User: Which sequence fits this backbone?
């Protein structure tokens, strides 16, 4: 007979200054609710896809016959360069929001994922991320790089792509992370995530360690198989990576994403994004470059973690321990030297 889970506990998230409820005993509950459908393979070219080479986007602009990673200004951006809104005060306070949005196509191949591509493809994507960051100067307070992969994560187009949203304000979650890291640095003189990284690197929550990068399931993870990806060197921006660090990032990211696909036996849906400074200087003190990888799957390709009910009204709750999730991902890693 399997050993019973130890019961519920709360874990503190120092980045968001918040608590997470961990309830591993709930993982065994019966499930008659909604189930997702794993995505089947598609064609390498889809004439109806707005992002495939040579096709026409909804704006009427034709996509070029691009052969590698390619980016363009989003036809339907959440932020634009101009806003005529006047600021408000008091309880109904508001402020104009300005910025820009870009679409980052990872490959001309419609039926490809970052997990299935080779290291060369991921190196091209990393180079694209770096190029795109340099488009935006000090007038932008934050530049967010991210990818939503899969219909389960609300992706409106299966073509391999990510996005960039640049804003003249620091978004709320980012602002809290920055406050936490700066406060820790002021108290200790050390980078919060660097201290955590150095304690996690040989611990039960580590997933993968390569020459330049470490990934682990955070002690305070909200999503079942959430992972933090952090460089071994203390740096704040993708723009200061060495060539070796970029190459190792391509390798590390490929192994990690393949582990997800192997564990869940499907093309794993996820949201992935970078928290790092978009310039070469003036980064907030104590900031360490890191990526959040957030898959919604719980214990199978058709079983999704829903952030509803208690999570929306009270506190984030997870159904398995971060240690169990990390062990499962380590077991699913493909062989590597």
Assistant:
């Amino acid at each position: 007979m399997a050993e019973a889970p130890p019961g519920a506990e709360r874990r503190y998230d120092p980045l968001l200054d918040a608590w997470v409820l961990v309830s591993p005993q709930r993982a065994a509950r019966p499930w008659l609710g909604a189930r997702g459908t794993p995505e089947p393979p598609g064609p390498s070219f889809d004439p109806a896809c707005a992002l495939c080479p040579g096709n026409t986007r909804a704006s009427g602009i034709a996509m070029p016959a691009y052969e590698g990673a390619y980016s363009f200004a989003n036809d339907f951006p959440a932020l634009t360069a101009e806003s005529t809104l006047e600021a408000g005060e008091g309880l109904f306070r508001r402020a104009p929001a300005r910025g820009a949005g870009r679409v980052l196509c990872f490959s001309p191949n419609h039926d490809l994922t970052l997990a299935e591509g080779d290291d060369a493809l991921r190196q091209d994507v990393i180079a694209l991320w770096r190029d795109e960051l340099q488009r935006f100067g000090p007038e932008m307070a934050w530049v967010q790089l991210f990818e939503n992969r899969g219909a389960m994560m609300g992706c409106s187009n299966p073509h391999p792509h990510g996005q960039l949203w640049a804003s003249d304000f620091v978004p709320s979650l980012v602002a809290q992370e920055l406050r936490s890291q700066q406060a820790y640095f002021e108290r200790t003189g050390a980078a919060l995530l660097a201290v955590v990284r150095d304690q996690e690197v040989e611990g039960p929550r580590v997933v993968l360690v390569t020459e330049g990068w470490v990934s682990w399931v955070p002690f305070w993870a909200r999503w079942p198989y959430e992972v933090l990806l952090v460089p071994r060197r203390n740096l704040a921006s993708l723009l200061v990576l060495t060539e070796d660090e970029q190459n190792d990032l391509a390798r590390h990211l490929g192994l990690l994403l393949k582990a997800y696909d192997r564990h869940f036996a499907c093309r794993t849906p996820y949201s992935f994004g970078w928290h790092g400074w978009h310039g070469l200087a003036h980064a907030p003190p104590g900031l360490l470059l890191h990526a959040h990888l957030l898959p919604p799957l719980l214990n199978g390709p058709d079983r999704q973690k829903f952030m509803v009910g208690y999570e929306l009204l009270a506190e984030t709750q997870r159904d398995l321990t971060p240690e169990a999730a990390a062990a499962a991902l380590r077991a699913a890693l493909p062989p590597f030297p």
